[in-house]
């Protein structure tokens, strides 16, 4: 069982890679999104939202049909994203649609639209500068006296 509040992201492609090779060869029409959503529902608390990362309209429809709460449309160009989201919301109005991949502050307005519920920008964390710090713990009696260094 997962800790409360833990988000679960199960891309169908990743799940498919974990399945034995014979399954892919012998069952090419297998719905990996349905397997992923079913596994997430079995493993997680009922209150946890299940999000499935999709790279096509077909995957997105499969994920929504399987009961995903959110469908992440990954690496879609704006001209592909909006028609896909429109079709998805028309069929599954209660499914949230998230846009992700290749979104920057400069092109953000192109990804905004009436059928996009969430926009994720990895560049917010990927472009952030690193901060080098450490935390040292000492026993109460062995704690050093802090020294102030003025520069």
UniProtKB/TrEMBL annotation:
GO cellular component, one term: cytoplasm
Gene Ontology molecular-function annotations: nicotinate-nucleotide diphosphorylase (carboxylating) activity
Start and end residues of each Quinolinate phosphoribosyl transferase C-terminal domain: 36-136
Pathway participation: Cofactor biosynthesis; NAD(+) biosynthesis
GO BP terms in the entry: NAD+ biosynthetic process; quinolinate catabolic process
Entry keyword set: Glycosyltransferase, Signal, Transferase
Keyword Transmembrane helix found: no
N-terminal signal peptide: 1-16
Keyword Signal among record annotations: yes
Family: Belongs to the NadC/ModD family.
Protein name: Quinolinate phosphoribosyltransferase
Gene: QPRT
């Amino acid at each position: 069982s997962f800790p409360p509040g833990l988000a679960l992201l199960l891309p169908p492609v990743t799940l498919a890679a974990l399945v034995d090779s014979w399954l892919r060869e012998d069952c090419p029409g297998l719905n990996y999104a349905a397997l992923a959503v079913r596994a997430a529902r079995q493993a997680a608390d009922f209150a946890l939202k299940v999000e499935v990362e999709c790279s096509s309209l077909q995957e997105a429809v499969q994920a929504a049909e399987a009961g995903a709460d959110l469908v992440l449309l990954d690496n879609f160009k704006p001209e592909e994203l909006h028609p896909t989201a429109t079709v998805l919301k028309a069929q599954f109005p209660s499914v949230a649609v998230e846009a992700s991949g290749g979104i920057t502050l400069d092109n953000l307005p192109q990804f905004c639209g009436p059928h996009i519920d969430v926009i994720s920008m990895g560049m917010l964390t990927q472009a952030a500068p690193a901060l080098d710090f450490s935390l040292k713990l000492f026993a109460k009696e062995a704690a050093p006296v802090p020294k102030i260094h003025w520069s």
